[in-house]
Amino acid sequence: MTIHLESGVERGEIDNRTRGEIRGRLWLVQRPEPVEFRWEGNCRRDLAGRLTRFTHLTPTVLPLLEPTECLNGVLGDWTADVPLALAHLPPPARWLSLEWYPDPQIRMVIQGNAFQVERSEPQWRLTSAEDEQLRRAGRKIFQTYLQPLNDAIDQARAAEPRHKEVWDEFDYELNLRTLDAVRAKCVEVFEKYGLSEELPEVLGEELDWHQDYEGPYDQFEPEPVRVELERHVGQEEQEEQEEDGTEDRPGPRPQAADWIHPPMGGVSHPIAQRCEQLWAGVERAFPRSFLREHVDAQLLQFVAGIHRLNTHLAASLAGVGEDPQQIRFLALVARLKRCLDEVNPIAAALQELQSRPYLTPAASRQYHSELQTLREEILNLMNLFRRLA
Question: Is the pTM of this model over 0.70?
Answer without folding.
Answer: no
